[in-house]
Amino acid sequence: NAGVTQTPKFQVLKTGQSMTLQCAQDMNHEYMSWYRQDPGMGLRLIHYSVGAGITDQGEVPNGYNVSRSTTEDFPLRLLSAAPSQTSVYFCASSLRQGPVEQYFGPGTRLTVT
Amino acid sequence: AQSVAQPEDQVNVAEGNPLTVKCTYSVSGNPYLFWYVQYPNRGLQFLLKYITGDNLVKGSYGFEAEFNKSQTSFHLKKPSALVSDSALYFCAVRELRKGNTPLVFGKGTRLSVIA
After folding, report:
1. Distance CA A70, CA A80 (A)
2. Which residues of B5-20 are buried (b: 16+ CB within 10 A; e: fewer)?
């Protein structure tokens, strides 16, 4: 199993540009989520999904869209990038919600100038 | 709303000494509690979890954590620290209730083990 994969690893955007961060998992996990990690802020939840076709907002959803058309993929879209979205983004998945561990991808480091 | 507090940004310990990384939580009902570790330029890795039962939970790499319901704490411990334990540690909580309950993380504690 490849686990959780994320692409790209690094990205530089100009303010106002749009892009999609890709996330895929091959473990048949129901639950997937996106976090951003900023210094001194820990991990903050952006969006999550409890299954294909079902998504919900986390703590910091503004400026981001998600969709879950398949069990495997959970892309994160930045509609109009802003410098405040400069961060490291992690995708994670778990078998389901509840008392199970999440598996994290390697992260995408995004810089918005 | 559920929340997690890690009161120490940084913990320094000498190699071979015991270590403790503190975590307190707040939920309306019963919690599921987790510890994760992050090494430089990597994603988070699962260390251990508390669901129910024995308050002392053992996990990977010799780590353990003690659940204390009255103090709403879930401190991470290790009897003898290694230099290779130096990393960023995150506590996380998920509330046990019906409906969608996402995992909420603390801000992290950087552990530095000095040889």
Report:
1. 25
2. ebeeeebebeeeeebe
Which of A41, A101, A109 to mutate against chain B (most B CBs within 10 Å)?
A101
First to last CA, chain B: 41
pLDDT digit string, tens, across residues B50-85: 998 889 999 999 999 999 999 999 999 999 999 999
B105 to chain A, closest Cα gap in Å: 6
Q: What is the pLDDT of residues A72-99, one digit of tens each?
A: 999 999 999 999 999 999 999 999 877 8
Tokens of A43: 């991990």
Task: Burial-class residue A40 by CB neighbours within 10 Å (0-12, 13-18, 19+).
Answer: exposed
Shortest CA distance from B106: residue in chain A:
A42
